[in-house]
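Appendix B. Worked example

We walk through a single record from start to finish. Start with the input: the chain for Protein NDR1, Glycine soja, length 217.
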Amino acid sequence: MAAEHDSCCSRCVTFLITIGLTALFLWLSLRVDEPKCYLDYIYVPALNKTLNSNSTHNKNTTILFALKLTNGNKDKGIQYDDVLLSFRVFESVNLTRPLGNATVQRFYQGHQKKATKHGNFSGGGGNLTAAVAGRMWYRVDYATAVKYKILFWYTKRHRLWGGANVEIGDSGMKVYRKAVRLGGKNPVVIESGASKLSGRYRALLLSLLLPFCGLWV
Ligand SMILES: *[C@@H]1O[C@H](CO)[C@@H](O)[C@H](O)[C@H]1NC(C)=O
Ligand SMILES: *[C@@H]1O[C@H](CO)[C@@H](O)[C@H](O)[C@H]1NC(C)=O
Ligand SMILES: *[C@@H]1O[C@H](CO)[C@@H](O)[C@H](O)[C@H]1NC(C)=O
Ligand SMILES: *[C@@H]1O[C@H](CO)[C@@H](O)[C@H](O)[C@H]1NC(C)=O
Ligand SMILES: *[C@@H]1O[C@H](CO)[C@@H](O)[C@H](O)[C@H]1NC(C)=O
Ligand SMILES: *[C@@H]1O[C@H](CO)[C@@H](O)[C@H](O)[C@H]1NC(C)=O
Ligand SMILES: *[C@@H]1O[C@H](CO)[C@@H](O)[C@H](O)[C@H]1NC(C)=O
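Next comes the structure step. The output line below is what the pipeline stores for this chain.
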């Protein structure tokens, strides 16, 4: 009688452990990281001061850009819809004027891959300039939707969007040399250099503190 009870109990425990492990496995394999989107390169020939000693006489309205998209997932592919880009120029700290739109065609990206997509368009109705306190700032936004490929299946679509303010220098290229993350929460307002620095310190502080928070959760 007791032996029968034991085997029932151990079967029950085995069952629960199996369920638990299956749930953990499912959770791990269904968890996805969103791709990251960066403005890798932008070049506005009309703003190249070396090229145009007479910049107001330059009629070249081309804007060239490269978008970088990274898939950090270890074992999931990503199917992107068309990536819609909009470019605007700041006329004051909180007011922008549209320059034009561009589209990066839909594509598939394997796991842990980076993709750089070049494009160009003609914009601004001929006027690509505006100054805020003597400096030129562009606003670049993207919007798309992605499906994640898990083994042989695709998840439903997830919408993604974001943008960043990008300072354009005298070479017609962006001043910040590294790729600029088009993050979801970057406000359409030019902040002072000081507040940007404190933002970076906040991120650093957070990344130092997060492992400790893990101990309490
Ligand atoms: C700007 O124009 C100069 C003169 O034509 C050229 O040498 C330079 O490469 C241009 N700058 C960029 C970033 O292409
Ligand atoms: C710049 O513009 C002025 C006035 O239109 C003109 O006289 C001059 O030749 C131009 N210079 C160059 C390098 O195009
Ligand atoms: C504008 O500049 C780009 C890059 O230098 C060049 O490829 C393009 O042909 C130019 N367009 C015109 C109309 O000059
Ligand atoms: C934009 O900035 C100006 C001053 O630079 C301010 O008066 C105005 O309220 C701001 N507008 C918005 C919508 O924040
Ligand atoms: C660019 O796209 C936005 C929406 O994303 C739209 O409101 C705007 O009219 C478009 N501009 C041009 C020049 O097509
Ligand atoms: C601009 O884009 C077109 C395709 O839309 C491409 O054929 C052309 O080579 C591009 N020009 C430059 C300078 O990248
Ligand atoms: C372009 O727009 C800016 C801001 O609106 C203005 O100050 C500038 O005079 C314009 N340039 C031309 C050539 O129209």
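Two observations about the output. DSSP finds two helices and eleven strands in the chain. Residues 92-94 surround 2-acetamido-2-deoxy-beta-D-glucopyranose (ligand 4) (CB under 6 Å).
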